[in-house]
């Protein structure tokens, strides 16, 4: 696997951009081989084409060190798959790109009817991240108990997450002192 052209030709063929790959090709083994041999972009192409997407997220985080791309890919997933991917990769995402990850978690944890009450995204001024408010629907929502464990080394971020959830789901008059 040291011939870049041969690896690219194999990936092109496997992804349908050239000669057909034999049906007995083990795509998981090919992804692993590409990762081990130092061809993470080839592994990523295979993982994105054949899935599961969780493998592509793993390549982005572990091999390419691209947390923004991993989080964007995760945000595209339907709720149940996004929840599973967050359960697997949430710690890494919180470590590498905490603010946008927290924004994504907020959209997954806050009931859809309360999302319009969320404070502005936590992204840096002038930055922003297009995930906030993107994922909807009640099916596949992560439970808070499933998320708390992701913050075992970041208790301050957990506190912030819980405060923001509370602010979004508490009626305004209940937050006003003296009422």
What does this structure look like?
This protein has helices spanning 4-14, 27-36, 40-50, 53-63, 67-75, 79-96, 98-109, 144-148, 155-169, 172-175. The chain has 179 residues and is mainly alpha-helical. The radius of gyration is 20 Å and the shape is elongated. The N and C termini lie far apart (70 Å).
Question: Briefly, what is this?
Answer:
59% of the residues lie in helices and 0% in strands. The protein is built from ten helices and no strands. The protein has helices at 4-14, 27-36, 40-50, 53-63, 67-75, 79-96, 98-109, 144-148, 155-169, 172-175.
Structural class: mainly alpha
> CA-to-CA gap between the ends?
70 Å
What is the N-to-C order of secondary-structure elements (H for helix, E for strand)? HHHHHHHHHH
Shape: elongated
**Average pLDDT:** 74
Number of helices: 10
> What proportion of the residues is helical, as a percent range?
55-70%
- Rg is 20 Å
